[in-house]
Amino acid sequence: MLHGRGTQGRPGKPFRTARGVAALSRSRAIDGRGIVTGLRNWVRDSELPARSGQAELSPPAVEEVADLLTAHVLVPDAAPPTEITWDYARWKPGISITCTYRLRWSDGHEETLVSKRYTGDKVRHLAERKDNSAELQSLSPRLHPRVILPDQSLSLWCPAADRELPGVAFLLNVKRFASLVKKSGITEPGLIRRRKSEYEPLRYKAERRAVFRARLKLRDTARTRINLAARVLPLEEALRISTARRDLEAVFDAAGETPFVPRLLGFHERYGILIEEWWDVKKGYESGDFSHARAAGVALANLHALALPGETGEASSGSGQDLRPLFSIDTALRDRYRGLHDLKPRSKTWIHGDFHPDQLVLIERQGRHSTALLDLDRLGPGDPTTDVANWIADHLFEDEELSFEEAASPLLEGYTEGGGTIVDDHLKRRVADDLIRRGAATIRRLEKGAVGRAARCLERAQAII
Description:
Elements: E1 15-16, H1 48-51, H2 62-73, E2 83-92, E3 96-104, E4 110-118, H3 122-127, H4 133-136, E5 146-149, E6 154-157, H5 167-172, H6 174-183, E7 192-205, E8 209-218, E9 225-232, H7 235-255, E10 264-268, E11 273-277, E12 281-283, H8 293-304, H9 324-327, H10 331-336, E13 349-351, E14 360-365, E15 368-373, E16 380-382, H11 385-398, H12 404-417, H13 424-444, H14 450-464
Antiparallel strand pairs: 1-2, 2-3, 3-4, 4-6, 5-6, 7-8, 8-9, 9-11, 10-11, 12-14, 13-16, 14-15
């Protein structure tokens, strides 16, 4: 079950509307309209922007969301949801606050609502854009897909109306997606039974990405159903990652090796949709589970050892992030933050780009178990210490009592076993930068106790180097 956070950040306390209370259950295979975020849950502090002098960017309380639904978002004659759960927050101090709410009705139907509140005139500019909400209405049967309220500096939308992810609406139209599957050569024409096919939404991060499992029903074949993973990304990012993945697959094919990443089966450039093979995972790991560090080290060494084509675009590292606005919400944080290191790569290899414990899985192929990597949205050439530092910084962030050596040793043992080598001082600076980013992220997501947590991250980063 993906429990959300209530208005004051209490875990597992969704707001119940006046129409009653419905039991929550983990998302099932549904028709694609009800999208859960699939993101990690945090205890959130809704008052952090106001305490920082930016009350105008306070996240809408779930009670306010209930009022907005009744006044503006519900289609005529639609009953209000019986539960509203705050699932996600992304605060850009001085600019905007984006929140995601999960709505559930008494009949079990679920939908997701995104709210984004801006400073300045951004919402008025949005209101002047061409509106295609009417075309999207069938994908959001109980809510208007997009509502803009200039007088409240507020934009509300359902995932199908996400302007940065136009592929979501394309994907949720089974007829159009089935056509893309056929054009990609995944099935023969005419085999997909659209009415019997269904989607399982796995992850949605507003304006950033959406991930679905597509279960496509087939006609009169030995395979009655095929499973596919479908990812939706912003268009420029989708183009870069599709090229990187094709290049990586060519490396595997040239070496006669079986890929330990899912194969890319199809791509739609105009809508930013990537279709990849679906793996039945025998064992997965939670985001805070580091028990498989040695295996993770070997997997990274194997990835980093692959031949690197010269033309592939570099991985997205996030190194250009300006974290000052986040740390500037508190005087002590602002004074302590000295920026990130200007690190030049000591070498360049294939890298995952965003490596965390839950992105390593155990799968079974041809009767044998093997380790594989998932979530390749930042794949590309880059500094191999980036991946190693991701993992170590995660471990230090999750367990503040660990020493650097305790967090690093199991992973580095596996990395060395797999043939990898790391320069120690370079790695420590990368880990320090990653800890700083994690400190900033606590503020961005309105984590409860974010200021104190961010201060400890800055202190720990300084101690490492």
